[in-house]
Write the structure tokens for this entry.
Amino acid sequence: MFLGLSCYLIFSYLLIPLRIEGHSMEPAYQNGSFSFCWRMKYLFSEIERFDVVTVRFTGRSVMLLKRIVALPGDTVEFREGMLYINEKQINEPYVHHRCAWNLAPRKVAPDHVYVVGDNRGTVMSRHRFGQIKIDRIVEGVIL
Amino acid sequence: MSKILLFPLLILLTAAAVFLFLPNDEKIIRKNLTSLAEYSSTSPEETTITTLKKSTLAAKLCSQPCLIHIESFDIGREFDKKELKDHILMMKKMLPDTHFTFHDTGVSFPENDRAEIMSTLRLKGKIDTTRFTDAYELSIHAEKIKSDWFFSSFTVVEFMEQ
């Protein structure tokens, strides 16, 4: 009984199992695979660039899985599919497929972060990315 | 069991049954939302008559007129029931193998005959041979008209800004 209760509490409130659906974070997170997110991740540490996080809609049943590429105050830009942060080209080893995205420079607002999926193999208009309020981030993905 | 104990227990059970099974406004709204998702969903085996029926039933859950606001598609106007039915029908034809569901739904009542609903709409389906999944945050308003609840507006909450 104690073991059951412990498992329930851990997997409901601390280490949340995720089932990945969709292709926007491939190849790191494949469609149909499983992962975990650690709710305590940002309790003792700050959000960092390149963290993979879950972004909520109205709750935790359905969430987006995205990678943070820019922090508040950073300037984000895409040139021919390459990411530029504060006018410096960023090496992104996790991106295997990329289209020639072009996005004019824009500054990330205070209390916001800029999130993008790893799979940039689709046209920019079909990929959901952009700046979100930090309070939309539910937790950090650990696996 | 003594009669003294039996009586309060019966009252307690009756109260619990009334609470569980008697429809209240929130339950009706949640049921309407589930029905809306069911009517909007389409399976490949669905006949044209069923598609027509389901589109009509989905439109019937909405008020006359109903405001639809989707900023990313540049849509922001009121639709009458006929227009709504036609658009639902068109959508079902465009997505012939798609399942709609609502998740994490919260309902509040700023007034007795008005409700505000926040929910996540999830779409899961197949276009040609490609499987897809998508989700949207919706802010929905509902109005009570002659003891029935009707959805009066749907707004897609755009929380991600490029």
User: Anything to note?
Assistant: The first helix of chain A runs from residue 2 to 14. The longest strand of chain A covers residues 63-70. The domain at 2-141 of chain A is CATH 2.10.109.10 (Umud Fragment, subunit A).
